[in-house]
Amino acid sequence: MDARQGEQSHEDCSPRPFPQTFASAAGIAAEPPSLQNKDSTFNTVVSRSHPCAIQPTRSARIKREVPFKPGDLVLAELWRKQTLEFRKMFSLTATGKALSNWGMVLHRDIVGKFPGQIFKTSTNFKLLMRRPSLEEYAMLMKRGPNITYPKDVNTLLMVMDINEGDYVLECGSGSGGMTLFLSRAVGSEGRVLSLEVRDDHHCRALKNYQRWCAAWAVAHEEEWPQNVEFIKKDITAVAEDMKAVTFDAVALDMINPQVALPVMHPLLKQGGVCAVYLANMTQIIDLLEGIRRCQLSLLCERVFEVMHRDWIVAPALRKDGSIVQRVEPQHNRSEESPDQRRRLMDDEMPFGTMPYIARPRHGLSSHTGFLVKLRKIKPAHPEPTSDNGC
Ligand SMILES: C[S@@+](CC[C@H](N)C(=O)[O-])C[C@H]1O[C@@H](n2cnc3c(N)ncnc32)[C@H](O)[C@@H]1O
């Protein structure tokens, strides 16, 4: 059965039923998410005058600050001289202790305070306590395999052109890093099917997802969308099960993505993007060789990297706190010709007032992974023969 059965045409504005799960569509067992989406942000009504206009009954959702509560995720940071010296993420309880080399803070002293507050430890160090962002959570959560780095995930989402309501296939789940970002991007109307061959990685990804969802519910007093199905299966073994499913995009972060190509290709909508994340250029060569050997109609549009470089921008101070002065050189005007002197006088600007360009040259810095953008296209007629062993 088609996982998208039940969708309406663009003209039909009646409420859309919650989509059937991929797993049930595919006839395979999915891990049920532990939390259910009980409430939605807006109650919607259909206007009589404009039957297709869906209007929120409230003009805007009321956002309010929520103080720390047991069950919250807390990020403790020690900043000194614009430098992060220590960072730790922990789950807040009613009776626990936040322990570190910098001293201890009782959890009960944190409960009830608002995030963004500085707490003094038992040894008089100042720790900033706040809730972690999704990027910070992904970087600090317990890992099985390495995650897709958040800086790269955001670009992958852009390349795949993921929108709310999209259906995305992911392989493999790994530690669940990319899954969390996909889940946020597709929202409560979308779905993510996340495949993982290893039992330990499948469990790790699910636990990381559930921990984030539980903390989100505490911090935001609403549920994170339950839109991910974690399935413990080799992608090469799901082809038959998923014949009827169509995805808007596919994200592959696995050691040999070329083995997934013949399976994912029929599942990806025509014109859709399969984004691949790989650490080594040799893997990209194998990927492209896989496309060639299987004669898949995938256009490799881009192979690229995402680079971030952090800068220090701060007043220049000496150790004693005094300000470092900019020093003007002395030059001897008497040795200049009258012409030179006039030009200097005319053009003269006081030392330190000339605007300069000051930016890094384009160059390489630390490498996380290569991003490959493959687009499914319709081949021109006549189609190639598939005499290639695939
Ligand atoms: C680098 S990890 C993925 C990390 C993930 N993107 C994250 O952000 O946490 C690669 C995962 O792909 C899984 N994998 C490799 N080949 C697979 C296959 N044929 N089917 C399903 N999963 C596979 C591995 O077991 C591993 O957990």
Describe the protein in words.
- It is a single chain.
- The protein has 9 helices and 15 strands.
- Helix 7 (261-267) links the parallel strand 12 and strand 13 (268-278).
- By secondary structure, it is an alpha/beta fold.
- The chain has helices at 22-26, 107-110, 134-140, 150-160, 177-186, 199-220, 261-267, 281-294, 338-347; strands at residues 44-46, 54-56, 73-80, 83-91, 97-100, 103-106, 117-120, 126-130, 167-171, 191-196, 228-232, 247-252, 268-278, 298-304, 370-376.
- Among the domains are: 22-47 and 54-58 and 137-304, 3-Layer(aba) Sandwich (Rossmann fold), CATH 3.40.50.150; 73-130, Roll (Vcp-like ATPase, Chain A, domain 2).
- Helix content is 23%, strand content 22%.
- Residues 1-19 and 32-56 have low confidence and may be disordered.
- The strands form 4 sheets. The chain has a 7-stranded mixed β-sheet, with helices on both faces. It has a 4-stranded antiparallel β-sheet with strand order 4-3-8-7. Strands 1-2 form a two-stranded antiparallel ribbon.
- S-adenosylmethionine binds next to helix 5 and strand 10.
